[in-house]
Specification:
CATH architecture: Roll
Number of strands: 6
Oligomer: single chain
Radius of gyration: 14 Å
Strand order of the largest sheet: 1-2-4-5-6-3
Structural class: alpha+beta
CATH superfamily: Hotdog Thioesterase
Shape: globular
Order of helices and strands: HHEEHEEEE
CATH topology: Thiol Ester Dehydrase, Chain A
Number of domains: 1
Distance between the termini: 19 Å
């Protein structure tokens, strides 16, 4: 089965905690080894000077990599984050943050993923993340 962005968006809206839904993430694309999500830069997510908070970026990265895992499985399969490491490169300013998540390696019980978050329209990377997910 191949998931569509609409399938992943519906799962995002039904299967995630309210505080994750408050990030207002939109699934732009999904495939067997990747997912692309966007998040608007709003006052609710920003620190001083309109900079997106690190907590919002880390949650976006984790969620995007979870959606990429679902693309790998081709179905809405739950996974559990066992490790998340986020590196902040520069202030997240602009209108939108795009997260490009990809599966690096998928084993029988663990999936390794990477994500890059880019500020738009500046098209500058603001953070990267790696994560490991357990597949129950």
């Amino acid at each position: 089965m191949t998931l569509t962005p609409e399938d992943a968006q519906a799962f995002l809206e039904q299967g995630f905690a309210p505080w994750v839904k408050a990030l207002d993430l939109t699934v732009q694309g999904i495939g067997p080894d990747h997912a692309v999500l966007t998040m608007p830069n709003t006052d609710q997510l920003a620190r001083m000077d309109g900079i997106v908070s690190g907590q919002a970026l880390a949650a976006m990265a984790d969620t995007s990599m979870v959606i990429a895992c679902m693309g790998h499985f081709g179905q809405l399969t739950p996974v559990a984050t066992t490790n998340l490491d986020t590196q902040f490169l520069r202030p997240g300013v602009g209108e939108t943050i795009r997260c490009d998540a990809r599966i690096v390696r998928a084993g029988k019980s663990l999936i390794f993923a990477q994500a890059t978050m880019t500020a738009l329209p500046l098209d500058k990377p603001v953070a990267t993340a790696t994560a490991t997910f357990f597949c129950p």
